[in-house]
Amino acid sequence: MLNSVANEAPWIATVGASTLDRRFPAIVRLSNGKFLYGESMYPGNNSSSAEEELELVYHAGSQYGGDYCLKNSLLRAKVRGKMVVCDRGINERAEKGQVVKESGGAAMILSNTEINYEEYSVDVHVLPATLIGFTESLQLKKYISSTKKPRAQIIFGGTSIGKSRAPAVAQFLSRGRSFMDPSILKPDMIAPGVNIISAWPHNLSPTGIPEDPRRVNFTVISGTSMACPHVSGLTALIHSAHPKWTHAAIKSALMTTAYIIDHSGRQIMDGDQPAGLFAIGAGHVNPVRAMSPGLIYDISPNDYVTHLCTQKYTRSDIFMITHKNVSCHDIMQKNKNFSLNYPSIYVVFRPRMKSKMIKRRLTNVGIPNSTYSVEVKPPEGIKVRVRPQRLIFRHINQSLSYRVWLISRNMTASQRLSYSHGYLKS
GO biological process: any one (predicted)? Predict the structure, then answer.
């Protein structure tokens, strides 16, 4: 969802979630011969009864909540031995399966609603079950409502690798822009966060449901909470190779080497549209390239304090963050035209504002006697000038600065864009 990004402080890495090209197909075969794609990590697919064709029921409830399979919402007489369709939402996905199981149901189809679109976050269900996308759920419900005795079976396909475009943006990802700090593009980057197989404590079931007696070493989890550990691991890896780098240098290495092209050679997708920068930030992390970025944008702690002053934080606000008493008036007097040395550039053109100058400073962490030239793809409606256009580094750890002027082209009111983006690379 746009404008929902959190954890947007410039000194932290804000990581979005992406998909892998690994899937766990569990296809629904309707009795009319049609197939609906779904995914599941139900572990009992060696059981002969797991793929049995069963009668389908939907809204099989005695009170409100039967469509979502809420606790005590299903009548045993209506669901016993049948495959129950449960809409996604309100309660946890795996919990719906437990409700179906306790009510005597034999299997479950979990159907995405419009808000979840075609997002497949799989679960280790307590009974034969699969998750289908929103488009498939519409087809399924149309079939149920038009058929006197609808029936279906779930065909579990194990693990499929390399047969889908990836990475893609996770549907549940919070997207920019940030209302708290509109001068910083967030998220910073994306990393794998959908259907990640992760270590799991033995005092919890793989579904997290108290009624689930199973205990495992690993389970499958989706979320930015899975993407962040990937970046934490990459940060540790880079730090081991470059122990003197600051955290800002490491984040810069991850951001400036990220990619925006998926495995098929096409642009990373966000649903059925190419992903924008409010979804992917600098792009998808690239561990190999991040180890040797060539150049980095470094930031000192004092730079962050100056940035807070530019954002009109009060003395007490800054004290809560830094535990230091500072005078923003004095700081701003010494740092006129300050812009944080961030690895991305985000400019807001306010009414009657025609241009903005941004300064950046690069540090050479590659090889001595190296020259970098700039390549610019300007955002639509914006003219971009960079000076100088070449930076010549004589030695390692040398820092050089450049300036970027972003000039808004004259456009009529009907031509004005809410957002546009481009890139600057060397």
Answer: proteolysis
Give the pLDDT of residue 410: 64
Residue 298 burial by CB count (10 A; 0-12/13-18/19+): exposed, middle or buried?
A: buried
Dist. CA 131–CA 142, nearest whole Å: 17
pLDDT in tens, 158-217: 899 988 889 999 988 888 888 778 889 999 999 999 999 999 999 999 988 999 999 999
pTM for this one?
A: 0.89
235's enclosing H/E stretch is helix 224-241
Instruction: Say how far apart CA 114 and CA 298 lie, in whole Å.
Output: 43
**Rounded-to-integer distance, Cα 339 and Cα 305, Å:** 12
Q: Compute the CA torsion angle 128, 134, 138, 139 (nearest 10 deg).
A: -60
| pLDDT at position 46 | 57
102-137 pLDDT per residue, tens: 999 999 999 999 888 888 889 999 999 999 999 999
